[in-house]
Amino acid sequence: MGRQLTIDLVTRAPDGTCILVIAEDRPLTTEDLPALQSRIYDYRDSALGGQVAARFPEVARSAFVIRVDLHAAPDPAVMRFLRDMEAILAMDRMGLEVNVLGQRAEL
After folding, report:
1. Is 5 in contact with 22 (CB distance < 8 Å)?
2. How far is it, in rounded angstroms, from Cα 97 to Cα 85?
3. What ranges do the domains of the chain cover?
4. Residue closest to 47 by CA, chosen among 98, 25, 100, 55
5. Which of 13, 12, 91, 88 is nearest to 52 (CA)?
6. What are the tens digits of pLDDT across the range 37-95?
7. Can you tell me the distance from the alpha carbon of 7 to that of 39, in angstroms, rounded to the nearest whole number?
8. Residue (of 59, 56, 62, 64) closest to 21 by Cα position
9. DSSP H stretches of helix in 1-107
10. Would you say the pTM of this structure is higher than 0.85?
């Protein structure tokens, strides 16, 4: 990763899991999926590569979850895509959560 990565929010769950938040403030469609996929992979790579822990040493031994916060209901294809991304991240022992309008969404 040669470019500077900006993570929208880094927070911790009560169990100590480090949550990396992608905040989307407009409805997502299939046209947005390449950019969203790139952001998810960048977040994953920065967590697994140690860049997040270097910036936030208190999360160095934490599990990581990427949370996508959607402030508008997404296209159904976007939810299918996020379900697929959840499976991909699970292979790296990372989680994916999605919140729609502040409520946890089932993938």
Report:
1. no
2. 10
3. 9-104
4. 55
5. 12
6. 999 999 999 999 999 999 999 999 999 999 999 999 888 999 999 999 999 999 999 99
7. 9
8. 64
9. 33-48, 51-55, 76-91
10. yes
Q: Give the chain's end-to-end CA distance (angstroms, integer).
A: 29
One-letter amino acid at 86 equals: E
Give the C-alpha separation, 27 to 10, whole Å: 22
In this structure, the number of other CB atoms found within 10 A of the CB of residue 43 comes to 25
How many residues are recorded in the chain?
107
**Tokens representing 4?**
């500077």
Residue 93, classed as helix, strand or coil, is: coil
